[in-house]
Amino acid sequence: MLGPDVTWYLAIAGTLFATGALGVLLRRSPLIVLLSLEIMLNGANLALIAFARQLGDGSGQIFALAVMAVAASEVVVGLGMIVAMARRRLDLDVDSLTELRG
Amino acid sequence: MGNFLVWVVWFVAAFACIGSAVAVVSFSNPFFSAIALIGNLASLAVLYLLLAAEFVAAAQVLVYAGAVVVMFLFVIAYLGGRADAPWAGRSTWQLFAAVIAASALLLEIVLAVGLKAGGRLSDEATIDESFGSPAAIGRLFLSDHLLAFEITSIVLLVAAVGGVVLGARSRRPAEQQVEPL
């Protein structure tokens, strides 16, 4: 393969995953937590596609597409919850949300 | 020459990718975070192209930059100023613990990749022209991974229904105006 081998792509994937995890743990706005979750999912996707290339097996790419669909679903439900929270005049802060029943 | 060019493209894409990821996490304005996510997704699509995943790269741009980020921007615009989340307010031990946990995760990944798989990842399989093309992906989806394909569609359907349920204005009995006859 031209260019860097798969190890380099895995390093990028790991860095993305850790950056996203830092955002999920550190930020208080549910919007930014969702955006950081997207970064984590994309790091996992990059690892899947790198291994698909390494093994010459297309199943990894199928898996990445399935992860993409799950990420889109997660955004729909997450953003719906944020809009519902905003309608109920709840504080948009993940630390202050301590019970499921509004 | 071709090898050098691929390295240059990889470097640019990789640094754009990590830089925009850090930007998403560190901007205090969610609007800028969502814009930075577009850069992250675009540079990831370039990396996917280098890994011979053409269809996934196209789907990445269409699904993420086209749909997910637009949805984020709509919600940020709907919330207006309430969406802003300043950094202050987290207690110090929480901040400390978050940094420790994230760096432990990074260290674990680097160790796993470097020690367990370091030497064995340099020789990859030879692939033909059609690897990662829409035709090859479609054939795999409808033959070997048919169940995953169907489950994905059900997941999307459930998410769409959930989005409608969450977004629908709840009608409480007290709010309903009874029209006089």
What does this protein look like?
The complex is a heterodimer of chains A (102) and B (181). Chain A is mainly alpha-helical and 102 residues long. Chain A is 75% helix and 0% strand. In chain A, helix 1 packs antiparallel against helix 2 and helix 2 runs antiparallel to helix 3. Chain B has 181 residues and is mainly α. Chain B has 6 helices and no strands. Chain B has helices at 2-26, 30-50, 54-79, 92-116, 134-142, 146-167. In chain B, helix 2 (30-50) runs antiparallel to helix 3. The interface between A and B is large, with 75 and 88 residues.
On the 0 to 100 scale, the average pLDDT of chain A is 87
Taken in chain order, the helices and strands of chain A follow as: HHH
Strand content of the residues of chain B, in percent? Answer: under 5%
Largest interface: A-B, 75 and 88 residues
The radius of gyration of chain B is 23 Å
Indicate the structural class of chain B.
mainly alpha
Distance between the termini of chain B: 84 Å
- Please describe the biggest sheet of chain B, giving its number of strands, its sense, and whether it closes into a barrel: none
Strand content of chain A: under 5%
